[in-house]
Design brief:
Layout lengths: L2 E5 L2 E2 L2 E2 L1 H10 L4 E7 L7 H6 L4 E5 L3 H4 L3 H14 L3 E5 L2 H14 L3 E9 L6 E6 L4 E5 L7 E4 L14 E4 L49
Parallel strand pairs: 1-4, 1-6, 4-5, 5-11, 6-10, 7-10
Antiparallel strand pairs: 2-3, 7-8, 8-9
Length: 218
């Protein structure tokens, strides 16, 4: 079966939920090949294998922590060259969409952003988008090149499916552009103990119309 690249969103080896959703979607159109980069990348393999990744390409080069965005694009491009996938799936975060767009430009392919579903089609993968506050649903496919698709969190269920998850080192040649924006310092985000807002299935908010905290039960 054809292979599908899935770019892994993780924090020090802890795989975030949107990536597991991408693996569910990827299995609908091919065999998922996960690309994990940065510190702790090799530690993602077990979880990725449990959710359908037939292969995990990893690189823990210092450039991923020292510089912004472009080193990850270099890595994804290296994986693309090694695998020749039928599609590339990336989570629709701010960084994810920038990575996807840069990759699409480099490989001369079209890009679809903020998809809510992906399925196989006769002429290649078809992406579903929900637009204008879900007033319209559109189905699109890329007419040239390999589809690069970003998918919104909570668009698919997390469905475990055991696979080989063979770990392979990914050789990445970093471009001169990758060193254009250097990270000078980092401040860890403090945990609030609450669920991650961007991964929540339902968000309830109340503004002035609630007229006070005591009326929030409405």
């Amino acid at each position: 079966m054809a292979e599908v690249l899935v770019f892994v969103d993780h924090v020090d080896g802890a795989v975030r939920k949107p990536t597991l959703e991408l693996l569910t979607l990827a299995r609908r159109i091919g065999d998922p090949v996960a690309v994990a980069v940065g510190a702790g990348a090799s530690g993602t393999a077990d979880v990725l294998a449990e959710h359908g990744a037939v292969k995990v390409l990893t690189s823990e080069a210092a450039e991923f922590a020292d510089y912004l965005v472009v080193p990850k694009v270099d890595a994804l491009q290296a994986a693309y060259a090694a695998v020749s996938p039928v599609a590339v799936l990336v989570s629709s975060s701010a960084e994810g969409k920038e990575i996807a767009a840069r990759l699409a430009v480099r490989i001369g392919s079209g890009i679809i952003t903020d998809a809510v579903d992906v399925e196989a089609g006769e002429q290649g993968p078809v992406a579903t988008q929900s637009v204008f506050a879900a007033s319209f649903t559109t189905k699109s496919r890329i007419s040239h090149g390999t589809p690069v698709i970003t998918v919104k969190p909570n668009s698919a269920p997390v469905e475990p499916a055991s696979a080989a998850g063979a770990v392979e080192a990914l050789a990445v040649e970093f471009s001169d552009a990758s060193r254009g924006t250097k990270v000078l310092s980092r401040t860890p985000r403090e945990s609030t103990g609450r669920p991650e807002l961007t991964e929540a299935a339902i968000v309830v908010s109340g503004g002035r119309g609630v007229n006070g905290a005591e009326n929030f039960a409405v």
